[in-house]
Amino acid sequence: MPNSSDEYKRQVMKDLAEGSKETLTEETENYQNFDDFAQRSSREERRNLFSDLFQKDRITPAEMEPELQKAVAGIQPNQRDDVAREFFKHLKKRGLNERDLEKQLGLSSHNPSRMTPEDVAKLASFAYHTHPDIFQEVLAIQPALVKFLSNPLVGAALGAIAAKWFGRK
User: Fold this and answer.
1) Is residue 21 over pLDDT 60?
2) What is the C-alpha to C-alpha distance for residues 147 and 145, in angstroms, rounded to an integer?
3) CB-based contacts of 58: which residues, under 8 Å, 6+ apart?
4) Which SS3 state, helix, strand or coil, does residue 120 take?
5) What DSSP state is assigned to residue 21?
6) DSSP structure class, residue 57
7) Do 67 and 149 contact (CB within 8 A), yes or no?
8) What mean pLDDT do residues 96-119 have?
9) Per-residue b or e along 27-51, where b marks 16 or more CB atoms closer than 10 Å to that residue's CB
10) How many CB atoms lie under 10 A from the CB of residue 85?
């Protein structure tokens, strides 16, 4: 009888088999791990990867919300502040100000340094639902959040990247 680990492995292999071959080109840099990728890759490289990966047809908002809650809780408070600032900055360019978003989303504060992990997760989820391009851009700027996502599709994509990194040594 298959256990959840076996099911997860099958899902990862299926997702890898169906993955975008354009995402990982031969010109991809050799990275030691995700942190190395986050530090040395360009914002454009991360944006391209994340725009392919984080789409509603691949990971539904219902799947993404609990992942965001876990991911935001996993990052350092200063990184969480930076993520919130980036979301507010990009959403403001679309005419959405911090105070209105605070009321609309039921946030405890519109000040990034006073926001709880739950507040930042709500803000990230809002962006994923309504402005996926902003969501992808913020992840490209603040990739620490991605490291804490565990959805099998995310895991499959990061696994493909890791296989590429280690396979080219």
Assistant:
1) no
2) 5
3) 153
4) helix
5) S
6) T
7) yes
8) 96
9) ebeebeebeebbeebeeebbbbbbb
10) 18
Residue with tokens 């169906």: 18
Distances in Å between the Cα of 154 and the Cα atoms of 34, 116, 131 are 13, 24, 19
Cβ(136)–Cβ(50) below 8 Å: yes
N- to C-terminal Cα distance for the chain? 37
**Alpha-carbon distance values, 57 to 19, 142, 149, 151 (Å):** 13, 23, 17, 14
Helix/strand/coil for 71: helix
pTM: 0.68
Helix (H, G, I), strand (E, B) or coil at 46: helix
Average pLDDT over residues 133-150: 83
